[in-house]
TrEMBL record, chains A, B:
Recorded superkingdom: Bacteria
Keyword Transferase annotated: yes
Stated name of the protein: Sugar kinase
MF terms in GO: kinase activity
Domain HTH marR-type, first and last residues per copy: 7-53
Pfam family, one: ROK
InterPro entries to which the protein is assigned, alphabetical: ArsR-like_HTH, ATPase_NBD, HTH_MarR-typ, ROK, ROK_cs, WH-like_DNA-bd_sf, WH_DNA-bd_sf
Amino acid sequence: MHVADAPPHLRILRLLRDEGPVSRAELGDRLELTRPRLLAEVERLVAAGLIAEAGMAASRGGRRSTLVELHPRLRFAAIDLGASSIDIEVTNGRLEPVATYREVSDIRSGPRVILHRVNDLLAKARTDGAFDRLDAVGIGVPGPVSFRDGVPVSPPIMPGWDRYPVREFLAREHGCPAVVDNDVNIMAIGERHGGVAHSVDDFLFVKIGTGIGCGIHLSGTVYRGVDGCAGDIGHIQVDANGPVCSCGNTGCLEALFSGAALARDALAVARSGESPALAERLAGYQAAARRAAESEGLSADDEALEERVTITARDVADGAAEGDVTCIRLIREGGRRVGGVLATLVSFSNPSMIVIGGGLAQLGHVLLAEIRSVVYRRSLPLATGNLPVVLSELGSRAGVTGAAVLASDTAFEQAS
Amino acid sequence: MHVADAPPHLRILRLLRDEGPVSRAELGDRLELTRPRLLAEVERLVAAGLIAEAGMAASRGGRRSTLVELHPRLRFAAIDLGASSIDIEVTNGRLEPVATYREVSDIRSGPRVILHRVNDLLAKARTDGAFDRLDAVGIGVPGPVSFRDGVPVSPPIMPGWDRYPVREFLAREHGCPAVVDNDVNIMAIGERHGGVAHSVDDFLFVKIGTGIGCGIHLSGTVYRGVDGCAGDIGHIQVDANGPVCSCGNTGCLEALFSGAALARDALAVARSGESPALAERLAGYQAAARRAAESEGLSADDEALEERVTITARDVADGAAEGDVTCIRLIREGGRRVGGVLATLVSFSNPSMIVIGGGLAQLGHVLLAEIRSVVYRRSLPLATGNLPVVLSELGSRAGVTGAAVLASDTAFEQAS
């Protein structure tokens, strides 16, 4: 919903969230509210415990006006579930973190295990003094979501989660409103709140991590599609003769370039020796694993060790930084694949910015340069004339930031 | 703008446009307006000459209520400029045509020539008694448009039109509001008003004509992109080794399949004899052209004749209907190309319907079957589970219908 369309109480709360304490006088001017209307709204929000007075503003000439701010007691829980991680921030009303938790976790353990672990972490946050009670919970999950129903819908990498009542569970457990969205959508929302897409109305947020997805922000709001799966670009076919994907089709974008695909290709060129930089790292990791096994008195079976040792995007980025041509080639080939798909999406949606985030964003400017080159070459000049293609600013915090924005919006909307 | 968000006068006018005469009592119920509010709004719209009383409604028990309708005098001009055609409808308030004009014309003649020809046709319509004065003019043009500014923006096939003040010109000439949009957007709007996408909020309208474009209807409204060129899908690269396109890139969708591309390929298989059905038609056309030349006493130079004679999409459709395998192959190959791009756009935008329109829609179910097959095979099941891929119902009237909708919306919005 556009700010201008929103009811006054929502506009007041959002302004205080995004800009901090403001005097009553300025609030009335900024939101174009008459003095009696403003007074009534402020009084109601004070009574509801959502805002509080915060001393006197500096004089603008004439009578000094009272500052108002979001109530210091307000707390939101922001949760970002990844394929293999749980990230939680408890924030104040201004969405500043007051407590942060991160742990490794497997989304395939199912909703009961994962959501109870989320509850345990939040119980710990309460014990740690991060909050007395929560005003809203926002959560992102790595799969399609029916935003209206607050449930995952046929999520391919989340067995057991299909239509599990995530929103209802969290709302009941914490006695507050809850909101559920796709993980890439919350990253896009986060980047728009506090990152590189600040105040940009039309942009694409492309997450390149374990998989690939796209958050679509159009006309100032997230576009989720009729089934909640808009932006599911990882399974676009980019090479009819490419490798088989986890979805069963061949040549999907994420079968060719994603965290998993890059790890596979990097390991291959490390083993073959084609990449000296990665071969050296692989040997180092194997030696370390062997020492660790020996120090625990286990037999250091070379073959088993070799299977456990992996190469990551970080290694490829480091190799590229050292000038290893194979590492650079792997990144550029990936960038070319992603760029090809993005060129199509730019022609279709004519956005004003593209933000690249997710774990593989650490491949940095080599990746970015290749994506840009393909997007600019293959899309029409009108669509790319002023189109920045940039890296995420928030990095791994994009998701929780967006979840906090959603949580606060939900709390504010229900305060009418 | 969603109907529910719109101000009362707009909701009244749209309801009367879309459904015809309604009693005051029903109007109040349907729009959830209090009786005093409704009376005030109706009185104001009567005074503004936009609505009129139309006798008494049938009794619903109790006092009979007066029917109101859009004023019978209301007239909108709807104009659809194609690459090689001008289509005009003058409609009444309910968007029913009261006069229709169609003529061949070359958009490359530039705005002065084309818009003066439009004015001549409208002058004729006035002389024919179609209207005394116009309440609004809506026009679609075959290129990107800044909807806000009412001007074409860098339109590739419209030399001389870049930023020409089309809206201002028409508004001044006709003394009424005017609105300018892209031709594919108005076709999408038309199809949603009176065609197969009736009341569908999220759909893609794919026009396959001289070129290829896509009208994007999301959350109940046209999405035009930040530069007005959203949906410009004709220059998406589908084959890096494909033919050179008019845009300078290689292997663009419309270089491989569009009216122009199909005419080129059809002529080739007619000349080579690979398609007996097309070879026979070509020979027939050449003989007819020779007879026409002879009857005019011109020399029947075979080579020059051969260059003038063309094969059209209609011929290919007829050949396919007769079972000519090469015609069927040409259509299926085209459908496969379009389907591949649409599969990508479905994964990205998760719409609830795809409508295929434009001149090549006459290739009918052979084309449709191939597009469907590729879209369903390559997109994820969640996005295609309930996704109809259907042919336009309005055909060549889609554009003028949409232009009339836009014109009426503009007139109604300015009536506040």
